[in-house]
Design a protein that fits this description.
It contains 13 helices and no strands. The chain is mainly α.
C-alpha cells in the first residue's frame, strides 16, 4: 500500500494496525504464531483475535476493575455485538477494532452465524458460575470453536473474489482445535477462575476427572493435527506452531498434576516449536 494512501485505504490500514497492537499486547504466544502466517492471511487473523480480546475484557475482569456492574457490562457487550454486525452490513465503524474485524468479515464470509454464538458465550460469563457437560459444550462452541471457524474462513477466503464455506473436514478440525485450546486454558486458569472470578468451567474436582479433560484435549489436538496438511500452504506453519504449543502445555499439565501454579512453556521451548514449524515439520502428537 502506498505510504500516501488516504481515505478508506488509510483508515483500513490504521484499523488493522490498531488490531495488531491489541493482540500483540495481550498474547506473545499468539503474536509469535501469527507472524508465521502469510501476508495474505495474517492481518485478518489479527483482527479476529483483537475483537475477541476486547469482548473478553468486558466480562473477564477489566470492566469490573473499572467499577462497572454486571448489568452495565451486559449493555456494553450487547452494544459491541450490535456495532459489529452493523459495521459488517455498512462497511464502516468509528471503533477501529470493530472496523478492522468488519472488513475481514466482509472479505472472508464471517457472518452472524459465527458472531452471535460468540457473544452469547461471553454473556454466559455474566450469569453462569458453574458449568455441567451440556453448558460446557455450548460455552466452548461459542467462545472458542467459532473463533477457529472465523480463522478458517480467513484461511480459505482471504484475497479471493467470493467467499465460500470451508471443507467439512477442515471445519471439524478447526472446531476441535478451538476446543483443545479452550480446555487447556481452563485447566491452566482453574485457580484464578474459581477463586477470583467465581467460575467453574470444567467441574474438575478429582484427579480422574482432570485426566478425562486432558484425554479429551489430546484427542482433539490429534484430530486437528490430521487436518493441518490440508490447510492452504501459507497457514500451515502458524497453525502447527500454535497446535504444538498447546500440545506442550497439555503434556506439562499432566506432569504438574493439580498444581495451583499456572503452567507455562518456557520462552526457549516456544522458540524451538516455532522454528520446527517454520521448516515444515509435521504437528507433534499431543500425548506420547
Amino acid at each position: 500500500m502506498s505510504p500516501d494512501s488516504t481515505g478508506l485505504d488509510l483508515y483500513d490500514r490504521t484499523a488493522r494496525e490498531a488490531a495488531a497492537v491489541v493482540i500483540g499486547s495481550y498474547s506473545t504466544s499468539f503474536g509469535m504464531a501469527a507472524r508465521l502466517l502469510g501476508p495474505r492471511v495474517r492481518p485478518h487473523v489479527r483482527t479476529i483475535y483483537a475483537l475477541v480480546r476486547v469482548a473478553d475484557e468486558i466480562v473477564d475482569g477489566s470492566a469490573t476493575e473499572a467499577g462497572m456492574p454486571p448489568s452495565a457490562q451486559r449493555r456494553v457487550l450487547d452494544a459491541l455485538e450490535t456495532e459489529t454486525l452493523t459495521a459488517i452490513d455498512e462497511g464502516f465503524s468509528a471503533n477501529l477494532v470493530v472496523h478492522a474485524f468488519a472488513r475481514t468479515a466482509r472479505e472472508c464470509g464471517i457472518g452472524a452465524d459465527l458472531i452471535s454464538p460468540f457473544f452469547a458465550s461471553m454473556r454466559t460469563d455474566l450469569d453462569v458460575a458453574s458449568h455441567d457437560a451440556a453448558s460446557h459444550e455450548a460455552y466452548v462452541y461459542g467462545s472458542a470453536q467459532v473463533v477457529g471457524l472465523m480463522c478458517l474462513q480467513a484461511f480459505v477466503n482471504a484475497g479471493g473474489a467470493v467467499a465460500h464455506p470451508a471443507d467439512p473436514d477442515l471445519v471439524d478440525g478447526a472446531r476441535r482445535l478451538g476446543s483443545a485450546f479452550q480446555d487447556v486454558n481452563f485447566l491452566r486458569d482453574l485457580p484464578h477462575d474459581v477463586d477470583t472470578l467465581g467460575r467453574d468451567y470444567l467441574g474438575v474436582g478429582t484427579a480422574a476427572s482432570r485426566e478425562d479433560v486432558l484425554d479429551r484435549i489430546d484427542a482433539d489436538l490429534d484430530a486437528a493435527a490430521a487436518m493441518i496438511p490440508r490447510l492452504p500452504g501459507d497457514c500451515r506453519r502458524a497453525v502447527t506452531a500454535a497446535h504444538d504449543l498447546f500440545a506442550a502445555l497439555s503434556r506439562r499439565l499432566r506432569r504438574a498434576g493439580a498444581t495451583r501454579e499456572r503452567v507455562r512453556v518456557p520462552g526457549p521451548v516456544k522458540l524451538g516449536l516455532a522454528a520446527r514449524a517454520t521448516v515444515g515439520a509435521a504437528p507433534l502428537r499431543a500425548h506420547s
